[in-house]
Specification:
alpha+beta; Beta-Lactamase; Alpha-Beta Plaits; 2 domains; five-stranded antiparallel β-sheet; five-stranded mixed β-sheet; 10 helices; elongated; Diguanylate_Cyclase; EC 2.7.7.65; PAS-like_dom_sf
Length: 319
C-alpha cells in the first residue's frame, strides 16, 4: 500500500529530531524541518546553504566539524558529528548531526540526516568529567592538610627520577619531621595537632616556589619535598628555609623537652641517578639523614651531598 508523502512529512515534523536534506552539487538545503526554529530560533527559510550551517556553528567547532563532514561526504561515508550550534539570540545548543550519504550511479547525489538536541547529555557528560577530575584530585590529595599525599609522591618521584637519570641532572629530596609531635598531641589534643599539621603543610608549600617543586605529606607528622634539577647547595638552602619558617610560626609547644615552640628536623640528599641506581635506596638514605638529625639534637638539617648516608644504628627509631 502506498503512503501519501504528506504523511511521511507529518511524521517527520512531529518528532524532536530535525530532518534535513542538502543537494550535493549545489550544497543548498532542499529541506529542513520546522522544528529547527523552535530549537535554535532560525526559521527554516533562513537555512539556504551549507554555508549557513557552517556559520551558525561555534567558532571553536567550525573548521574541524566542517572539514570532517565534507571529507566523509566526498568519500560517500555515513557519519555523525557533535558541535555547538548558534541560536538566534546568541546562545549555543549542543547538536548531534547524523548524516546519510545518498548515491546515484556511484556518485554522491545528496545528504540527508537528522539533527538531535544533545545539550542535556553533554551537560551530564561534563558534570561526570568534572566529578571524575575531582575524585582523581582527591585520591592524590591528603585529606587533612590539602597538599599532595604519599600516593602522588610515589608517582612524582618515579617521573623525576627517570628525568634526572635521562638528562643527567641533579635530583634532591628533603624529608621533614615535626619534633616531639606525640608530646604535642598529648598536651594540646589531636584537634590542635591537626591544625598544626595544616599550618606546617602550608608553610612548606610556601617555601618551595618553583613550578616543579613537589611538597607532600609522607605520613603522620612527616613531610617530603622533591626538588628536580636542584643541586646539593640549593637543596640545603631550601631545607634551612623550611626549618626557619616552621620555627617562625612560633607555635607554642609546652610538651617539648627541648624548646617552648614547635620545631622540625630535616634530612636532605642529592643525586644524579646512575643507570643502575635504586630509587628506594636513595629515599632510604634521606630517611636515615632525617634520623641523624633527630639523634644529633633535633631542630636541624642533616645532609649528604650525592653520597649514601651512614648505616642506621641498631635499635628503635624515635621521632
Amino acid at each position: 500500500m502506498d503512503i501519501d508523502p504528506t504523511v511521511y512529512k507529518t511524521l517527520l515534523e512531529s518528532t524532536k529530531a530535525i530532518p534535513w536534506k542538502i543537494d550535493w552539487k549545489t550544497l543548498k538545503f532542499a529541506y529542513i524541518g520546522p522544528q529547527i526554529e523552535q530549537l535554535l530560533g532560525w526559521s527554516p527559510e533562513s537555512w539556504v546553504s551549507a554555508q549557513d550551517w557552517a556559520e551558525r556553528m561555534h567558532p571553536e567547532d567550525r573548521d574541524e566539524t566542517f572539514n570532517y563532514c565534507v571529507s566523509q561526504s566526498q568519500a560517500g561515508v555515513d557519519h555523525e558529528a557533535d558541535y555547538r550550534a548558534l541560536t538566534k539570540d546568541g546562545g549555543y545548543v549542543w547538536i548531534r548531526d547524523v548524516v546519510h550519504v545518498v548515491r546515484k550511479d556511484g556518485e554522491v547525489e545528496a545528504l540527508v540526516g537528522f539533527m538531535f538536541d544533545i545539550s542535556e547529555r553533554k551537560k551530564t557528560e561534563e558534570e561526570l568529567i568534572t566529578l571524575q577530575k575531582e575524585l582523581e584530585e582527591l585520591s592524590f590529595k591528603d585529606g587533612l592538610t590539602g597538599i599532595a599525599n604519599r600516593r602522588l609522591f610515589d608517582s612524582i618521584i618515579d617521573i623525576e627520577w627517570t628525568n634526572a637519570r635521562r638528562n643527567q641532572q641533579p635530583l634532591s629530596v628533603v624529608m621533614l619531621d615535626i619534633d616531639y609531635f606525640k608530646q604535642y598531641n598529648d598536651h594540646y589534643g589531636h584537634l590542635k595537632g591537626d591544625d598544626t599539621l595544616k599550618q606546617v603543610a602550608q608553610t612548606l608549600a610556601a617555601a618551595a616556589t618553583r613550578a616543579r617543586d613537589f611538597v607532600g605529606r609522607y605520613g603522620g607528622e612527616e613531610f617530603i619535598l622533591v626538588l628536580p634539577e636542584t643541586n646539593e647547595a640549593s637543596a640545603l638552602k631550601l631545607a634551612e628555609r623550611c626549618r626557619t619558617m616552621v620555627s617562625q610560626l612560633q607555635i607554642p609547644h609546652a610538651g617539648s623537652p627541648q624548646q617552648p615552640i614547635l620545631t622540625c628536623s630535616l634530612g636532605v640528599a642529592t643525586t644524579v641517578p646512575a643507570p643502575d641506581a635504586d630509587i628506594a635506596a636513595f629515599i632510604d638514605s634521606v630517611d636515615k639523614l632525617l634520623y641523624q638529625a633527630k639523634q644529633n639534637g633535633r631542630d636541624r638539617v642533616e645532609s649528604a651531598p650525592r653520597s649514601p648516608a651512614a648505616p642506621t644504628p641498631p635499635g628503635p627509631r624515635t621521632r
